[in-house]
Design brief:
The complex is a heterodimer of chains A (112) and B (111). The termini of chain A are far apart. In chain A, strands 2, 4, 5, 6, 9, 10 and 11 form a 7-stranded mixed beta sheet that branches. Chain A has a 4-stranded antiparallel beta sheet with strand order 1-3-8-7, with no helix packed on it. Chain A is mainly beta. Chain A contains no helices and 11 strands. Chain A is 0% helix and 52% strand. With 111 residues, chain B is an all-beta fold. In chain B, 0% of the residues lie in helices and 53% in strands. In chain B, strands 2, 4, 5, 9, 10 and 11 form a 6-stranded mixed beta sheet that branches. The chains are: A mainly beta (112), B mainly beta (111). The interface between A and B is medium-sized, with 22 and 27 residues.
Amino acid sequence: NAGVTQTPKFQVLKTGQSMTLQCAQDMNHEYMSWYRQDPGMGLRLIHYSVGAGITDQGEVPNGYNVSRSTTEDFPLRLLSAAPSQTSVYFCASSVRAQGEAFFGQGTRLTVV
Amino acid sequence: QQQVKQSPQSLIVQKGGISIINCAYENTAFDYFPWYQQFPGKGPALLIAIRPDVSEKKEGRFTISFNKSAKQFSLHIMDSQPGDSATYFCAATQTARQLTFGSGTQLTVLP
């Protein structure tokens, strides 16, 4: 079973470039989320979705956009990359908000 | 503002010892408290979770202790093994809300 799949695993961007981090899940979960993980900061919620067509902001949404056109996919877009967005990004999905969250393996992004 | 405070940041324990990680929260509306385990290069995975209607939950060598009045909860790993070496995150949430994570504890169990 694939679970939650994130691509790419590694990415280097130049300041000002844009890119999309892909996330797909095959468990038919309604809830999907994007987190960033920074040393000493834990996992911070960027954006989340409670179903296709519904998205909302988390704790640190600035500089990121999301959309949810299907149940399976939840891409995260960086509009104009900044060095402060250097981080490890995790996508997660769950049956409900308080259900077990299944995480992807992460995307390590470096902005130079 | 960190809603879930986790300590210590790092922990070194001898094989067979007890590992204890503590978390404290402020939001009394939180009603679900999971712990996640993360190995290097992997995403976090659910380890064990508790709701505030019980004071303790045990699954194998892992136990959550919950103190509602103090707004604290902790993870105890009994008979710690080198394979338990990982980063542990406590988290909290309230109904229909997303998870709020602590800052993480890097556990090293020495052989």
